[in-house]
Amino acid sequence: MSRSENSIFSNFSLKENSPTPLYRQLQQLIKDAMEIGTIQVDDAIPAERDIAADLGISRVTVRKAVRELVDEGLLIQRQGAGTFVKGRMEQPISTLTGFTEEMAKRGMTPGVKWLDRSVGVASPEEAMALNISPNTEVSRLARIRFGADIPVAIEYTTVPRIFLPSPELVSLSLYDVLTTTNYRPHRALQRLRAELFSAEMAGLLGIEKNSVALYMERRSYLKDGRAVEFTRSYYRGDSYDFVTELQLDLHPNRFSNKSKQ
To answer: Does residue 256 have a pLDDT over 60?
Structure first.
């Protein structure tokens, strides 16, 4: 196959003898190009035939790599126009996962910058959210969450000390720690709304004051019903989407009173 001119992949090659499949290697090339700015938000990536020619691989391999990146929310395909960098991360809200797990699913390196890790007495708001008495000791975590070195959220988490004796136990993932101690949440209630970042929070994320934030409040519970986590997260509205799947209600009248008295 002849190589196309002026393609971002013209000077690269994939390793056929690598244990990493070719389509995975191509996905990493595309992600690397996005991270260093070679291709940016709303830029089109080369056509499948050009990528295949540049890298000496089949179009089937290219198609598989691109399709999975579309499914992850990193790319978007527009009918008759091509495939473009979406530039926004999507997180499903129908499954109970942590930030670190979501980044790993996308092949992105999760990161954290700690703002606070401390122990204290539950505030009235925390006590109400966790259904504990106001004098109960809690561990608090405040951090900036990163995906591929990009700051995407500020997160404040409170956990009763009976479940997390020391906040220093958490280096990256709270859920990893709670899993090892058998206190992994079994279910959660989430509330989302739009807010504006304060000047202080915007400065931490490197964005403009009063930028739109997606505020998410999560209260997580163990199988026995005890509240284990109260988290308030502020996600960048310019880089994060929350998605959920809706299904037709096949029994729309199941709550109506069918009998007339």
So the answer is: no
Residue 174 amino acid letter: L
- Residue partners of 40: CB distance under 8 A and separation at least 6: 34, 85, 87
Residue-wise pLDDT for 97-149, tens only, equals 777 777 666 666 788 999 999 999 999 999 999 999 988 999 999 999 987 77
- Name the band, by pLDDT with cuts 50, 70 and 90, for residue 251: low
Strands 227-236 and 240-243: unpaired
**110 vs 219, which has greater pLDDT?**
219
User: Are the C-beta atoms of 12 and 50 separated by less than 8 Å?
Assistant: no
Q: Tell the residue number behind the tokens 């890790």, with chain if given.
A: 117
Rounded to whole angstroms, the Cα distance separating 148 from 154 reads 15
* Rounded Cα–Cα distance for residues 88 and 41 (Å): 9
**Cα gap 134→111, rounded to integer Å:** 32
What's the token pair of residue 7? 């393609």
Residue-range domains of the chain with CATH: 22-85 (1.10.10.10), 91-238 (3.40.1410.10)
CA 117, 120, 125, 128 torsion-angle sign: positive
Cβ atoms of residues 128 and 103 within 8 Å: no
DSSP-derived pairing of the beta strands 150-160 and 227-236 = antiparallel
d(CA 80, CA 172): 42
52 is written with which tokens?
């295949």
Tens digit of each residue's pLDDT (9 = 90 or more) over 53-63: 889 899 999 99
Which among 97, 105, 48, 50 has a CA at the least distance from the CA of 73? 105
Could you tell me which of 97, 89, 105, 109 has the C-alpha nearest to residue 229? 97
- Write out the two tokens for 117: 């890790």
